[in-house]
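Tutorial handout. Part one gives the primary structure; part two gives the three-dimensional structure as tokens.
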Amino acid sequence: MRKVGPTFSRVTAELDRRRSISLGFERIEALLAALGNPERYLRVVQVVGTNGKGTTSVALSAALEATGEATGTYLSPHVVSYAERVRLRGEQVSEKAFAKGMDEAISVADGLGIEVTQFELLTAGALAMFREEGVTWAVLEAGLGARYDATTAAGPEAVVLTNVSLDHTEYLGNSVREIATEKLASIPENGVLILGTDNQEVVGLARSRCGELPARLVEASDEASAASGYLEANVRLGCRAAGELTGEHIPENLVTHIREQVPGSLPGRFEVRTVGDARVILDGGHNVEGLRATLEKVRREYSKSRIGVVFGVLRDKDIAGMLELLGGAEVSLFLTRPDDERAAEPWSIFGLPGVGSCGEVYVEPNVAEAVRRAVTVSGGVVLVTGSFVTVAGARRFLDGRQGGV
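Part two.
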């Protein structure tokens, strides 16, 4: 009898079931060892930071591929499909390939009684897939900080730090200094740090950390200063990192090409859809700095349009700070609830400072209905933001429609 392979739905249900946050390396190291330590067959670069990690990771991988280096890229979170998290040689893996690779990791973990979390399974499974495919480089986007993040167990030889701002404060600390210290903790001795921020507090910590180890420090904030927006800044940082790691010059025309290709590679990162006469922008800006960058780009590119903002956020975020950015008579605000147990209730947001300064405010708990209403009321430009979970709900709604809203 022919053995039936694992189904994507069954594997993803198993991953959903194991969703939790548990710090420490004991479980991930045990699973990696049981899988034959795939990370030892790879050159690993870890991308850490508060915002822009996914864009930087994809750009870094694209630049490495352009120099002839085969890459595997591991991203988080996904927006609609778990398969978004694993890319091989510049392409997202199929759901069939994802299911096969992750099922093997789950089977090994369960067979040995290793109680790994979802993120640990995904990390180990991706590394095993990369080794199986014979790639040279593994570009790993960290999930939470770096000191205890599962990607750090892969032993990166290089770390790329995009930027640091307040996010995940319950795990990483309540100040930029504390959070930066956690994100710099994975720099290896005699390794390299490519630093993408010019925040002087972070720069000072990076110099101190690299001096103690020792490690080589590349201060690459000039890449951001030469850019016209956060997308280009992240792409330039990824390309600069690839050049530093390979010793190859990354020409400007290649940087431009990668910048043009990256947006289509990452769902929910300033993804623009056309709905009738309206433009619907899906961006998972889930903290103050991420949302600020998104709004700057929206206002720069659609300066003459009234903006409808569909806003759904998780309770642990700086909701008041995000609402302060959204205030303005040109903004119609549509408060909604992402499909997550950690979601903030829209009626509780309605009473917060910042809401009152918006031109019009609506409450529609269902994300799909909020998007439909925003397109109808605003007509021109609709931004869906606040959480990748909100974006996922909007994306499923838009993908399921035929014609206009």
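Part three, for discussion. The radius of gyration is 21 Å. DSSP finds 16 helices and 14 strands in the chain.
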